[in-house]
Every structure is written in C-alpha cells, then in structure tokens.
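Predict structure. Chain length: 207.
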Amino acid sequence: MLKLAVFDFDSTLMDGETIDFFARELGLGEQVSEITEAAMSGELDFFESLQQRVGLLKGLDYSVVEKISHNLPYMPGALETIARLKKRGMIVVCFSGGFRTATSYAKDILGYDADFSNALHVKDGKLTGLVGGDMMFNFSKGDMLTRLQNILGVSEEETLVCGDGANDLSMFAHAGTRVAFCAREILKKEANIIIETKDLTKILEKI
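Prediction complete.
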C-alpha cells in the first residue's frame, strides 16, 4: 500500500518552468529556456545550470518574482489528484529544483503537506543572482527522499514519485512506483508508469 507520494513542481504540478517565467521579464526567456531544457534532458549538470540561470536573473525586482510565483498555471488534475491521494491516507510532498516563492505558495492551494525547494537571494528588493536551498544538486531529491522515508518509516515499495526531468532520477532510484509525467526520455527509461497527457488524474487510474 502506498503511503508517501513525492511530486516534482515545474512541468509536473505546475504547467511550465518557473524560472522561464522570471526570465521573460528580462527578455531572456529563450536563453534561460534552452539551459533549462538541456539540464532537464540530462545534458548539463543541474547545479551548474541552476547557478547559471539564476545568475542571469540578477537585478530582477523581488516584487515581480512574487507576482509571477503567485500566478503560475497549475497542471490540470493537480488539485484533484493530491486530494484523492490524501484521502487514501497518503502523505504528499513536493520536491523542486525551483523556488520556494512558488512551491510554498502553491502548497496551500494544491494541498500538499510540505515543500522542499530553493531560495533566491534578495538584497535591496532585487535578486542578486545567487541561490541556495534544499534541491541544488542532481542527487538532492533522492537524498531528501531517503531521509523522509527514514523519518516516516516508509519503505521504497510504499513510495510513489512523479517527475519529468533528469534531476528526478535520483528519487526514482528509491521508489517502487515511478511516474514519468510528460517526461524526457532519460526519465521514461527508469519509470514503471508513463503518462503522456497533461492530466495528473491519469495517475489515479494506474495505482
């Protein structure tokens, strides 16, 4: 029986990449999007790509960051799927290589129990181009998942994970149910459930 569900945020619980929305404000949407895609496909080291992309955001007003973070388009079925999983008695958590401004805000809307993500450094009301947090590396999601499993007394077989990109691979290594959601090929190879439609409720049909 499943007891723990861990979802990625960008392009999983949310329809798009938060950092790409920020970059568009600076006219850097295409440049940042290309780096994001390469990182999610496993072509770039996640830590290096995150530093590079956040560095390009230097000078962006934090008020703009908050406004964008609070108006992101959530993935169809996200709210219903989380509610249904929680009704089954599962703990639902979000792991994101993105940012707390988005994941902590979405927590109360989508209803998951906790979020682990990164924080953008702000000084004098503007982004400094620096970032730190829980999900900085390729190994971060797997590392945090095993810690959570130990704290909660949950086994790999009792764990469901869902994501779309290469930085989700590390948590796929520690879960019995592995959902690749509209995912890159590198992640599909490690999944035992593949969803190709932008509708998270499709997961409920498979578990």
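Summary: The CA atoms of residues 149 and 155 lie 6 Å apart.
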